[in-house]
Amino acid sequence: MNFLFVALGGAIGAAGRYAISLIPIRTAFPVLTLITNLLGAVLIGFITGVASDNGGVSPYSVLFWKTGVCGGFTTFSTFSLEAFTLFENRSYLCGGAYIALSVICCLAGIFCGKKLAALVR
User: Fold this and answer.
1) Is the C-alpha dihedral spanning 87, 93, 96, 98 positive or negative?
2) Residues 68-81, mean pLDDT to the nearest whole number
3) Which of 43, 81, 84, 87 lies in disulfide reach of 95, CB 3.0 to 4.6 Å?
4) Within a 13 Å sphere around the CA of 78, how many CA atoms are in the beta-carbon half?
5) How far is CA 85 from CA 55, 81, 118, in A?
6) H/E element holding 9?
7) What is the mean pLDDT of residues 16-31?
8) Residue 49: which domain range?
9) Cα(86)–Cα(119) distance, integer angstroms
């Protein structure tokens, strides 16, 4: 049963990630992947915040949202490839900024998601 919830959530997350990739923004800086990962960080922070303080949250629901949706939605492998490609193309400043912004923004996103969860409780 756990696999079913993860698979369903993963399909939704992957479809969401693909939908964001269709936004017609084309720059040398991989802004759409950064936005996707930031949204995923906020969402997983929110889910973690809600689940940790609410004993009534089903473990299936947590698997669906956290492992499934967020796992299918966020794009660490894409992030890694884009950062590597920026360095490979000698765009060192852009690559470094992308890595730093991704880590800092996603950590801040988790913090914001947890704060949002605290407001909802």
Assistant:
1) negative
2) 93
3) 87
4) 18
5) 44, 6, 39
6) helix 2-21
7) 95
8) 2-120
9) 39
pLDDT, residue 118, reads 92
Average pLDDT over the chain reads 93
- What are the two backbone dihedrals, phi and then psi, of residue 73, each rounded to the nearest 5 degrees? -85, -45
CA 62 – CA 67 distance, rounded (Å): 7
CB 86 within 8 A of CB 94: yes
The number of domains in the chain is 1
Task: State both tokens at 98.
Answer: 């992308």
Q: In this prediction, what percent of the chain has a pLDDT beyond 90? A: 83
**67: pLDDT confidence band, cut at 50, 70 and 90?**
very high
Nearest-angstrom CA–CA distance, 18 and 20: 5
- Torsions phi, psi of 58, nearest 5? -65, 140
